[in-house]
Automatic annotation (TrEMBL):
GO terms for molecular function: Atg8-family ligase activity. Residues 7-100 form the Autophagy protein ATG5 UblA domain. One of its GO terms (biological process) is piecemeal microautophagy of the nucleus. This is Autophagy protein ATG5 UblA domain-containing protein. Pfam families: ATG5_UblA. The lineage of its organism: Eukaryota, Viridiplantae, Streptophyta, Embryophyta, Tracheophyta. InterPro entries: Atg5, Atg5_HR, ATG5_UblA, Atg5_UblA_dom_sf. GO terms for cellular component: Atg12-Atg5-Atg16 complex; autophagosome; mitochondria-associated endoplasmic reticulum membrane contact site; phagophore; phagophore assembly site membrane.
């Protein structure tokens, strides 16, 4: 039971910075510290992130995306997998940059909210079950 709890309750501390090109206030907002579930997805953190940075954002339509060291992060890959793949020497907290503008549609498929994340997860489960049948 202990191993199961460690897996399901595993989390990664994130330090999320607003990209400097999107800051409209002085001083810039401080980074946000969040504990993200390893088996969760970054778009599911947006309800915690948006209010923290909302006063510093330029006007316009929000399309949230994340990057790590200038690499746009694929939202449909679980946070723990992204962390394990991209951090050869794990950093704590994991420093990510959040963007609310300039979605890289040529690199990332769009995420249209929580329902999109749920359907992506269900499709991943179907793909895995097909591979093992």
């Amino acid at each position: 039971m202990d191993a199961q709890q460690l897996v399901w309750k595993g989390a990664i501390p994130l330090q999320i910075h607003l990209h400097e090109s999107e800051v409209t206030t002085l001083p810039p907002p401080p980074p946000l510290l969040v504990l993200a579930p390893r088996i969760g997805y970054l778009p599911l953190l947006v309800p915690q992130i948006r209010p923290h940075f909302s006063s510093a954002l330029p006007p316009g339509v929000d399309t949230v995306w994340f990057e790590y060291k200038s690499l746009p992060l694929k939202w449909y890959i679980p946070t723990g997998v992204l962390f394990d793949l991209l951090c050869a020497e794990p950093e704590r907290p994991w420093n990510l940059t959040v963007h609310f503008r300039g979605y890289p549609g040529n690199i990332l498929i769009p995420c249209e909210g929580e329902d999109c994340v749920k359907w992506s997860f269900i499709n991943s489960l179907k793909e895995v079950s097909f591979l093992f049948l």
